[in-house]
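Appendix B, record 7
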Amino acid sequence: MDWSVIGIIFSLAFIVILALRGWHIIIIAPLAVVIVSIFSDMNVMQTMTGPYMKGFVNYAGRFYLIFLAGSVFGKFMEDGQAARSIAEGILRVTGKENPMRMMLAVALVALCLTYGGVSLFVVVFAVIPIARPLFKELNLPWHLFMAPFIFGAASLTMTMLPGTPQIQNIMPTKYMASTPTSAPLVGLCGAFIVATLNVLYFRYILKKAKAKGEVYEEPAPGVFGAGITTTGPMPNVWLSLIPPVVVLVLLNVDMPYIKRDVVVALTGGVVACIILFWKYYANMLSTLNKGALNTVIPIVNTCADVGYGMAVAATAGFKVVSAWLLTLPMHPIISLSVATNIMAAITGSASGGLGIILETMAPKYLALGLSPDLIHRIAAMSSGAFDAMPHNGAVITMLAVAGLVHGNAYKHIFFGHVVATTIALFFAIPLGIMIYG
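Structure tokens (predicted):
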């Protein structure tokens, strides 16, 4: 095997091991670049200041405003009590009398918020204060929370449901003639399969927890989100739904004098929040500042991931792997899915892996005559499968916020996101090939 390929594999193992030991990706990524450079006989500093920083800066330049607008919108939804109002409105409809219905309610809360444009990094802070009392009331082990949360907050609303404003569904539109609603039937097929598998998994883990006699235990001390308001006045639930609807309309409907752009759409959502919920903000400037600051960790994490990935892409080993993928004896859309999954796993980031594929390989697939809509949907869906490796920044953040650890909760993330989405791709890809050729 080529030494450069070995270096890529070794650097990935290095990232996973250190991430599991608590190292931050901002530190791990440059160190992994050093490993890649040495095995590929590349000058370390030239690789660091060249491909690594180029990938880091290019990603920030292309997507910083999207992260900023999404984070600010999420914070205005949170501080305006609209997120809590939507959550409690859903709970009134679904009820919380039994464990299964409660799990579905938590998933639905996360799904509605992320489909409405709120970032996963923000949704976890909004959902935990609602979910924790429910798990305690029903005496369910808290680690089960990660199952409905990952189902509702990722996969479906991240890459599958047509029109979702999440970054993974927006990125392909910047590289080809596609839209956020590209290949809707393919996305809906995948969403149905993922939903079915997750519901079956809920039944399984609830039954298993009951058989083992597991009960609710308070999560680790110092869990984030403790300061979020869970009582007090909040707007009407129908009023609370208006800003997310504004985001979806501005993103997906052609309107005169308004550019159909995700930053414009999310900014419109912020304006709607200010108009509708102004009396609920204790300090609007503080909300704006905190929302802006919440942008830093997600964007820097992803930039570090993309930088590492672009350093990998500059190696001889990557050229060997990419050439192998393009010449596989299979339909090119299948090799696109495999390539995206591999890069998402290497970077530990859906947007990071997808960004690398779109930058380096999408033009080659377009040149083969593949439909941009099909490339968009399959690449997006594939980015949201093996991205959720243990070193994934979102995984680490979610577990920390919830007061959980890999040992007791990662298995729920792995099945609900990685396994379910991979199975969905086995059905979505043939459907897409049949429809788009």
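Remarks on this record: The chain has one domain: 3-436. Residues 222-227 have pLDDT under 50 and may be disordered.
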